[in-house]
Amino acid sequence: MGDLAGRWRELNKAYWDERVPIHLGAAFYDMEGFRARPDSLKDFETAEVGDVRGKRLIHLQCHFGRDTLSWAVRGAQVTGLDFSPPAIKAASQLATELGIDARFLTADVYDAVSAVEGETFDIVYVSFGALNWLPDISRWASVIAELLAPTGHLYLAEFHPFSFVLDDETGSTVTHDYFDEGPEASGGPGTYADEAATTEGNESVEWRHSLSTVVSAIAGAGLRIQFLHEHDYTFYLQRRSLERHDGDIYRHSEGAPRIPLTYSIRAEKA
């Protein structure tokens, strides 16, 4: 694992570069539906972030920009940043195709401050499946603090780390150490958006950061946490024990003990 961990950026970049075109064509992302109605945001996200009209928003680890463009449609002045050139190229092309004003930059999240040349933002937005690809959450939080304008805020929506310690079949038995934060080898052929896809770059490296690690890093960077909300639902078949409800909402079966599957944090720059 030591060799893989030392190559985390190289491996993860190759992993994601290859999967961009797969994701663009996958039913999971429903790009036809997005083109007809460019809004991929979750209801609780828009409610918790609030009115973004006229505000400068940067979306870190934006993939090919669906959520970024969704904020632009709601009136934000958006910048999307991702380390994958194919993802940023696809995002820029999508913005042009849809006639949405947006800026997209290719850069590692840890280099975001230099990538935007010191510009600051009213909102730093980070969403599902982002933090597990980063080895150093304290450094990540420090970058966010530098990106925020005075009175600006971070909004983070993520998969809850506790949900990954349970068994896949029943979701009721603890099978993984919650406090083992990695690194761990991950990947494999295909992708969550298309498990049958043929892929070559199948090695990646992830970290499972505990909730306390994330909260402490944000506070340690000098941001004041306004809320931490835990949610008993998620947005894809994260575990086989989950059942689909309305739309793309997944929960454990009726009568089963509820556990947190996702969470959201808002923190402001004092």
Automatic annotation (TrEMBL):
Keyword Transferase: yes
Pfam families (alphabetical): Methyltransf_12 (PF08242)
GO MF entry, a single one: methyltransferase activity
PANTHER family: TRANS-ACONITATE 2-METHYLTRANSFERASE, TRANS-ACONITATE 2-METHYLTRANSFERASE-RELATED
Name of the molecule in the record: Methyltransferase type 12
Annotated keywords: Methyltransferase, Transferase
InterPro entries on file: Methyltransf_12, SAM-dependent_MTases_sf
Native source species: Streptomyces regalis
Annotated ranges, domain Methyltransferase type: 59-154
Domain of life, per lineage: Bacteria
